[in-house]
Design a protein that fits this description.
By secondary structure, this protein is of the alpha/beta class. Helix content is 40%, strand content 16%. The protein starts with 24 loop residues before the first helix and ends in a 7-residue tail after the last helix. It binds pyridoxal-5'-phosphate.
Length: 256
C-alpha cells in the first residue's frame, strides 16, 4: 500500500518516513494512530506517577518530508523539532500556510544563529554564553522573546554537547539577563540505556538541577527530556516536552 518515495537524493528510502502522505491516506491515518499512542503512553505514566506537570509532544521531524509533517499537523500536532537548519528553512517555506510552532533542537553554530533567531520559537540546545548572546542580539524586535532551554551534558559524555552540571548555574544566570531571550529550563539527552532505573536516574538529576536553579531565583518551567525509547522515565521525572521522532515518523535514514 505504501509507495516509498525519496524526497532527497542521497538518503536511503524508508517505506514509512519517506512516503508521500498526500497521495496516501493510509499513511496519514497511521501518523494519527502513532501520535495518539504517544499521548496514551504519556497519560499512563502520569496517572501512575502522580505527575502534576503538563507534558507536550514535540514531533521531531528532522529528515521527514513536508507532506508527512502536513499530515501530522492535520492530526493536531503543532510543535515540530528540527536539527538541520537548511532543511528546516526549506520546510518552513513549504508549510508556511500552517501555524506550526518551530523548535530548534540541534547543535547551534555561531554562524547560524541569525536564521535560528529569526525563524524559530524555541531553541532547546543552547550550551554556551556566546551563542545565547548572539541569539539575543539577532532576535527580531517584532517577535516575542525566543524561548531557550540550556542543554546539560547530564552523564558527562565526551561525545555529547551540553554544559557540565557544575557550570550550569553560572551560565543560566547570565542567559537569564539577556533581553530578547526567555530562559525556560533545561534539555538533556542521557546516555542511551535500556534500563529504566538508569534512565530514571539521569532524568532525576536533570530535574534536581532545575529545582536548584529555581531555588536560586530563576523562574523555570520547562524540562525537555525523553525521546521515543525513554519517554516513560522522563515523564515520571517531570518532563514538560518529550521530543519524539522515530515513534511518530518511523526510522530515520541515518542513525544520529
Ligand atoms: C533526533 C532527536 C530526537 C528524537 O529521537 P527519537 O529517538 O527518534 O524519538 C530527540 N531529541 C533530539 C535532540 C534529537 O536530535
Amino acid at each position: 500500500m505504501i509507495d516509498p518515495k525519496t524526497w532527497d537524493e542521497g538518503t536511503a528510502p524508508n517505506s514509512f518516513a519517506q512516503a508521500d502522505s498526500a497521495q496516501n491516506p493510509t499513511l496519514a491515518a497511521a501518523l494519527c494512530t502513532r501520535i495518539e499512542h504517544i499521548v496514551q503512553r504519556i497519560a499512563t505514566v502520569r496517572s501512575g506517577a502522580n505527575a502534576t506537570q503538563e507534558t507536550h509532544i514535540l514531533a521531531v521531524s528532522k529528515t521527514v518530508n513536508a507532506e508527512n509533517m502536513r499530515a501530522a499537523f492535520a492530526c493536531g500536532q503543532r510543535a515540530f523539532g528540527e536539527s538541520y537548519l537548511q532543511d528546516a528553512l526549506l520546510k518552513q517555506e513549504a508549510l508556511n500556510d500552517l501555524g506550526i510552532e518551530w523548535h530548534f533542537i540541534g547543535p547551534v553554530q555561531a554562524n547560524k544563529t541569525r536564521p535560528i533567531a529569526e525563524h524559530f520559537a524555541w531553541v532547546h540546545s543552547v550550551d554556551r554564553l556566546r551563542i545565547a548572546e548572539r541569539l539575543s542580539q539577532q532576535r527580531p524586535a517584532e517577535l516575542p522573546a525566543l524561548n531557550i532551554c540550556i542543554q546539560v551534558n547530564i552523564d558527562r559524555e565526551a561525545s555529547k554537547s551540553g554544559v557540565l552540571p557544575e557550570d550550569l548555574s553560572a551560565l543560566a544566570h547570565r542567559i537569564a539577563t539577556l533581553p530578547r531571550l526567555r530562559l525556560r529550563g533545561l534539555m538533556a539527552i542521557p546516555r542511551p540505556t535500556d534500563h529504566h532505573e538508569a534512565q530514571a536516574d539521569s532524568f532525576r538529576r536533570v530535574r534536581e538541577l532545575q529545582e536548584s536553579l529555581c531555588r536560586e531565583g530563576l523562574a523555570l518551567d520547562t524540562l525537555s527530556m525523553g525521546m521515543s525509547d525513554d519517554l516513560e522515565a522522563a515523564v515520571a521525572q517531570g518532563a514538560t516536552w518529550v521530543r519524539i521522532g522515530t515513534a511518530i515518523f518511523g526510522t530515520r535514514p541515518s542513525s544520529d
